[in-house]
Specification:
Blueprint: H1 3-30, E1 36-42, H2 49-60, E2 65-71, H3 87-100, E3 109-112, E4 117-119, H4 123-131, E5 138-144, E6 148-155, E7 164-178, E8 188-204, E9 209-214, H5 216-219, E10 224-233, E11 236-245
Parallel strand pairs: 1-2
Antiparallel strand pairs: 1-3, 3-4, 5-6, 6-9, 7-8, 7-10, 10-11
Length: 252
């Protein structure tokens, strides 16, 4: 191959790679939906949690996973008050347990797509559960403007479902904490995608739905956001059927 043909070949390969990279970049920028949502219920006062927190860091690098950390407050009495925990995260975990009917509330606990739960530090079990995750039926996209978060939901409800709740999650991308007392005294633990607030912003019954949400609350404290579409009833939150995030979008 001559030098000119070699140069043309290399340029063609570079263009091909650039085109292949475009969908990934667009997904990161516009907040396309990942197929799996992972919720880790964790605590700074739990000695078993740091390995699970590290595992969640690794999962958060996968564009096919929306990895969320939900610190709980029910271990605060052990000598260290979790600096990131909220009572709402603890209540969400209890509601999951109540819906399943198994009374299984512990840390570290991972819940996949609002359904199956596994020990958060058990990497083989977590990966196996990810492989069994139920498929999403709702397509969710996010688009950020300086003042507005535009949410578009489309698709269909699972058979037998009549309505789903649309939740907006305010998320802190990363925080390293030095634990001063308790079971993790002296340790520095890094938490990723910490859920600081979860609020219902709409209901979805299938088809296309567009929501325009103000962005200013998420800009405070460096927060970003995620949107999930979740089935629920009087017994508590259930299967997550759609999700998207701008956690990879550095523009917000």
């Amino acid at each position: 191959m001559g030098p000119v043909r070699m140069l043309i070949s290399r340029l063609a390969a570079a263009v091909c790679l650039a085109v292949m990279a475009l969908p990934v970049a667009a997904a990161a920028r516009d907040g396309k939906a990942p197929p799996v949502v992972v919720e880790l219920f964790t605590s700074q006062g739990c000695s078993s949690c740091p390995p699970a927190d590290k595992l969640l860091q690794n999962l958060s690098k996968d564009a096919g996973v929306l990895a969320l950390s939900l610190p709980v407050d029910y271990w605060d009495y052990l000598g260290w008050k979790d600096t990131l925990a909220t009572p709402e995260n603890s209540e969400r975990q209890r509601l999951y347990s109540a819906r399943r009917g198994d009374r299984s509330v512990y840390t570290p606990q991972i819940i996949i797509n609002g359904g199956e739960h596994v020990v958060g530090g058990d990497e083989p079990a977590v990966k196996a559960a990810l492989g069994r995750a139920t498929k999403m039926t709702a397509s969710v996209t996010l688009h950020s403007t300086p003042d507005m978060l535009e949410v578009t939901i489309d698709g269909a409800l699972p058979e037998g479902a009549k309505m789903a709740t649309v939740y907006l999650l305010h998320v802190m991308p990363s925080k390293t904490v030095e634990v001063g007392r308790g079971e993790n005294e002296g340790r520095q633990v890094t938490y990723v995608n910490v859920v600081k607030r979860l609020e219902a912003v709409g209901m979805w019954s299938g088809g296309q739905l567009e929501l325009n949400l103000p962005q200013h609350p998420m800009k405070k404290g460096g927060k970003r956001c995620a949107v999930i579409v979740q089935l629920e009833d009087d017994s508590g939150p259930g299967r997550i059927i759609g999700a998207a995030s701008n956690l990879w979008d550095t523009g917000i």
